[in-house]
Design goal:
heterodimer; A: 264 residues; mainly alpha; MetI-like fold; 80% helix; B: 357 residues; alpha+beta; Rossmann fold; OB fold (Dihydrolipoamide Acetyltransferase, E2P); six-stranded mixed sheet; five-stranded antiparallel sheet; 24% helix
């Protein structure tokens, strides 16, 4: 009796994973398919990857994507951390209000965020391009940083900062030498999360990019409209693996940082 | 008397409209071990934080070595604090923790190295320099917190319930350690605790506080033997506190019976409180007692027996090494010297007592 229920459970879990990952698995398999048609297997090849890295427009898009992801995650980490410091000094009610406001971009449909940012940029008379993409990515990344730094902030023992002051450190020195290192695991995982979100984004970028610039996701979208090329499978596979690695890092980073041998 | 080092003058502080300290006056001398003792919320920690510079008083001034430091930020004060929850820097090694203050002051490397070794030796943790704070026990972490403070050679060390998180055995051990360190360093300790035993064991001077007022300042002996009001008597150790009437000098009427005592100057027929410590109540044969009663409870406490005796409508708490079984008729005697007379508080609240040290 017992074993049969456990088999049922296992099958159930297996089904869930099959439904979740079968499409991606198909994509990955097809990215190594030598035949151009999707219907039949023409043997293993890495040609699609090879032609992908020779395609300059795609490499450009990759460069833009990484640069925007890095810059927006970096800026969001700084702004988000500063916001957390301010929020930790606030009264409970004000903090709850601010927290609600910062959470809105996360819960808001991407298309609404995208269109409203686009309208804002138009009314401000900004020229669409790299700058507008970066600004919008910073905007939607900040809540993710706050979300991962604030819990860390709450765990801080306020006496630690006071102890640094007590030992003669100025408030600025105390912050950089004592508070910031304690917050670092939270900031780091917030950074990686923001980086992932930025890599991942299509809709908001689509509305705020203007012409003449592409990130990987918008590049894939334009290519796919012209007809699906196998290079796009290869590209999608690379993006999937990259995001997977980043998510993995986000989850193990805090534990690693907390282990005692990390200090010198 | 040693030289006066710290003077708190007319210090008041309230948080969100709630008065925590009210016109506090306190003098602390060089090389003194002063304990601020009181229940939680009595203002003792706030007083310490005002000394450290973490809380700014609403009124009054802090005088340190003749200089007014009321507006001086904590990083400029020649005081160091040992915090309740250790507050070690968890991302630094023990040695880096201890060196923190010295590095900020740009001391030479060899000097810092010597100081680290000296401090680790003082707190009995030699060879722990390369360890991380997380790998140490609570007691060891607290010693490191002390080491980190004292390498800066402060004139005063402020300690905020430093032993509160430790277990009983370790706490007792650390009490002796602290006394030894204080004698070795020759600096002033200002110690905050709610544990009366800790205060009695370590202090030169105890400041008993309640509801933002100082109730009594004195040596452990005088606080214990001559409490000035019912709050102090009740807070420090067990005691029998009884409403009584001072008939005249050296004679007090307790529960309808006249006892002779040694106190004078309370006037005639004046209502007072008397405090009699349980170990000062002598149980004798009924015919030899000043009053008689019956033993109602008996507990063995190890060092002594704790008994309750019903006499003249009051349950007397008695500590004695001689057992009197429950139900036995006994006489009660009290040496005149052991009857402590106190003025009655004027209000319901434990009011402020004007004090001269």
């Amino acid at each position: 009796m017992k074993t049969s229920t456990s088999i049922v459970k296992k099958i159930y879990v297996a089904l869930i994973f099959i439904f979740l990952y079968a499409p991606i698995a198909t994509l990955i398999v097809l990215s190594f398919n030598a035949s151009k048609t999707r219907a039949k297997w023409g043997g293993f090849t890495v040609n699609w990857y090879r032609s992908l890295i020779q395609d300059e427009t795609i490499l450009n898009a990759l460069g833009t994507t990484l640069l925007i992801a890095f810059l927006s995650a970096f800026a969001a980490s700084i702004i988000g951390t500063i916001a957390c410091i301010a929020m930790s000094g606030m009264k409970r009610r004000n903090r709850a209000i601010l927290m609600g406001i910062t959470n809105i971009p996360m819960l808001n449909a991407d298309i609404v965020t995208g269109i409203s940012l686009m309208l804002l940029f138009i009314s401000l008379g900004l020229k669409f391009g790299f700058g507008t993409i970066l600004l919008s990515h910073i905007t939607f990344n900040i809540p993710y940083v706050i979300l991962s730094v604030l819990p860390r902030m709450k765990q801080l023992n306020p006496s630690v900062y006071e102890a640094a002051l007590d030992l003669g450190a100025s408030p600025v020195t105390a912050f950089f030498k004592v508070t910031l290192p304690d917050l670092m695991p939270g900031i780091l995982s917030g950074f990686l999360m923001a980086f992932t979100m930025s890599l991942d984004d299509f809709i908001i970028t689509h509305f705020t990019k203007g012409s003449g610039i592409n990130t990987l996701s918008t590049k894939i979208y334009t290519e796919v409209r012209k007809g699906i090329k196998p290079e796009m499978y290869a590209l999608s596979t690379i993006i999937f693996v990259t995001v997977l690695i980043l998510l993995f890092l986000v989850n193990i980073a805090p534990e690693k940082k907390a282990s005692p041998d990390s200090g010198k | 008397m040693q030289k006066e080092l710290i003077k708190l003058e007319h210090i008041s502080k309230s948080f969100d409209g709630q008065m925590v300290l009210d016109d506090l006056e306190l003098k602390i001398h060089e090389n003194e071990f002063v304990t601020l003792l009181g229940p939680s919320g009595c203002g003792k920690t706030t007083t310490l934080r005002i000394l450290g510079g973490f809380v700014h008083p609403d009124t009054g001034s802090v005088i340190f070595d003749g200089q007014n430091i009321t507006n001086m930020p904590p990083n400029k004060r020649q005081l160091n604090t040992v915090f309740q929850k250790y507050a070690l820097f968890t991302h630094m090694t023990i040695a880096e923790n201890i060196a923190f203050g010295l590095k900020i002051k740009n001391k030479p490397k060899s000097y810092i190295e010597d100081k680290i070794q000296y401090a680790l030796k003082l707190v009995n943790l030699e060879g722990y320099g390369k360890r991380m704070p997380d790998s140490l026990s609570g007691g060891q972490q607290q010693r490191i917190a002390i080491a980190r403070a004292i390498v800066n050679e402060p004139k005063v060390l402020l300690l905020d319930e430093p032993l509160g998180a430790l277990d009983l055995k370790l706490r007792q051990e650390m009490q002796y350690e602290l006394i030894r360190m204080k004698n070795e360093l020759g600096i002033t300790f200002v110690y905050v605790t709610h544990d009366q035993e800790e205060a009695l064991t370590m202090s030169d001077t105890i400041v008993v506080m309640n509801q933002g007022y100082i109730q009594q300042i004195g040596s452990p002996e005088s606080i214990y033997n001559e409490p000035e009001n019912a709050f102090v008597a009740d807070f420090i150790g067990d005691s029998n506190i009884i409403a009584a009437t001072m008939i005249e000098d050296k004679c007090v009427e307790i529960l309808g019976t006249r006892f002779s005592c040694v106190d004078t100057g309370f006037g005639r027929s004046r209502p007072v409180d008397v405090v009699i410590r349980p170990e000062d109540v002598e149980l004798v044969e009924p015919e030899n007692g000043i009053i008689t009663g019956v033993v109602t409870h008996l507990i063995f406490k190890g060092v002594h027996y704790e008994m309750e005796v019903m006499a003249n409508g009051f349950e007397w708490l008695v500590h004695s090494t001689v057992l009197s079984p429950v139900g036995q008729k006994v006489g009660i005697r009290v040496d005149p010297f052991n009857i402590q007379i106190m003025n009655k508080p004027e209000s319901e609240d434990e009011e402020a007592v004007a004090l001269e040290l």
